[in-house]
Every structure is written in structure tokens, then in C-alpha cells.
Amino acid sequence: MKKLMVATTNAGKVREIAAILESTGIKVTSLLDLDEKIDVEETGSTFVENAVLKAKTIAKLLQVPVLADDSGLEVDALNGEPGVYSARYAGEGKNDEANIHKVLQRLEGVSLPNRSARFKCALAVYEPEQDKTIIVEGACEGIITEKPVGSNGFGYDPIFFIGKLGRTMAQLTKEEKNSISHRADALRKLQQTWTEIS
After folding, report:
1. Most buried by CB count within 10 Å: which residue of 54, 85, 168, 174?
2. Does domain 3-196 have CATH number 3.40.640.10?
3. Catalytic annotation on 185?
4. Residue from 69, 70, 157, 185 carrying the catalytic annotation
């Protein structure tokens, strides 16, 4: 496999995946490179279901290998929310800031030791010629801060504190984030199984 279409229009996500897969010699493209807009409704109840749905739908449409991910934040004190609704937690059309505000608002009065959370990522690669799917999952544990800190990254990064590093995800350099993130964890596992589809 020389080329891989990443099923996202999130430029930050494309950069992360391309950087981590750089050593494989695979050219990463994304939905941002297409003239037509492809939108797959995420109807799954889990990250894995959504990732497989996106990968298969787009791969069959374009007849190229597709990597799709579904990822998000799970907060224990919120019974796993926002979960699969992470990108639209504050409602359709809302932005990262609104989503962060909603999480912090719902955690008001919850002490730091009880604000445990994790970023989770499910990756699915579908190869239409072989009708083959590979699924891997990754995670990164942390604590939700009481206010946003840092300006790097995207999504919930400014409120996700990583204890062993003493900083939020949004305070990390790109290289640091790519070494410990949930997506990096999943991509490392994907690289280990790469021979199955390449």
C-alpha cells in the first residue's frame, strides 16, 4: 500500500496521522484533498462502529484504502460522556470552546481527584480490493482541569492534564503529543499489523 486516504476533514488530525505514519513511506491524503464533499453520518454507538462505518463507506465509494478514526473524550464523573458525541457535545455547529465550556460546567464542584478521564481512539483501515478490515484502539489517561491551559493542539486538549508530564495536552509540542496521544497509541498498534493489508 503506497497511498492511504484518511477519512477526515480535520486538518489537525491529518497532520498528526501523517507525522506518525511518515516512517512507513505511505503518502497520506484526506477528504480535504477532494473536490466533492463526502459526509458519512456517524450512527454507531461506539468509536469502533463509527470508524468502521466511515472507512468502509468511503473506501467503497472511492475504491482506495481508507483509514478512518473515531475518537473522543470519556470523563468518568460524567458516566463516560461526551464519548462518541465529543465533537458535537455542545450541539451541532458548536466549536471546541463551547464543548470545553460544557464539560467544565458539568464538572463544577467535582474535586480534581474525581475528574479522571481518557482520550480514546478507534482506527479502522479498510482495503476494498481485499475486502479486509483492521481495527485497533488506543487510549491516553488524564485528569480534567478546572480551566483551559495551553494553546497547542485542538479539541479538549487545553483541559486534559497528563500527570506524568505535569502539563495539559495543549501545552505539549507536536512531537510530545505524537508520542503519548491516544491516536499515537492506536497508530503504533496499527503499524504492528500493517503487513496484513500492505
Report:
1. 54
2. no
3. no
4. 70
